[in-house]
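Service request form, structural biology core

Requester: graduate student, group of Dr. S.
Request type: structure prediction, single chain
Budget code: on file
Notes: please return the result as structure tokens.

Sequence provided:
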Amino acid sequence: MSQGLAPTADVFLSDQDFSRIAALVHDVAGIVLAEAKRPLVHSRLIKRLRSLNLPDFAAYADYVSGQSGQAERSALISAVTTNVTSFFREQHHFDSLAATILPPLIAKAQAGGRVRLWSAGCSSGEEPYSLAAVVSELCPDAYRYDIRILATDIDQIMVEKTRRAIYPAEAATGLSPDVARRLFVASKAGTALHIHEKIKCLVTCNHLNLQDPWPMKRPFDVIFCRNVVIYFDKPTQERLWQRLATVMPRDAFLMIGHSERVTGAALAEFQTEGMTTYRRR
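Core staff response, request fulfilled:
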């Protein structure tokens, strides 16, 4: 690794260095860093330069592209990804779950069947724990049955936050008192909210890059992949839609973000079932 004086905020991010970093991010994660993201990349990666004691972005690009930079590639992806989420974000999906999608699945589990939900791109965990809260509301003893929620994210820091299942008090802002009581146990100091154990136990958290091979071998009844593909180019989006279809049985449901649409060959695999909701044909 190149050594040098600790860089300052005015270190220049050249066209060439930005292109190299953007190409690496795309190769690793499928994420497109447009020119408009250059200030964000600069401000976030300057901290990585300081941490590694690298003099400039050219040295960083050399390091992260090399064999010894494998661990830093995870830090790079963490630095350039944006994690904006909240409990019960895009409420209509959770309303559909409670009203029509989950009841037959819970009945299947109660009859001895297997039910699986996947939060693909779980960020810091608000989405999978919202899913688990709906399951728990409909089936208070869900933990007794074979009902599980997989939460995955490319950002290892977010995966660890999801595993901890501890949130600031303001995370309950906008939630009804009843929903907050079902979701959280407040710390003694009242400064943190812990996810209820009966909800937390339904969720398994794992690191996963959606561009890599998937270790999951069995299908999912519901997949939330929301506000993920907006960071991908069109070919990468279309490949992901097709891959998701391969792990969904007939009549499984896919929920996507409000600005996203299933496109390409995967359109033949899905039919629309409401706002940004698809059912596997």
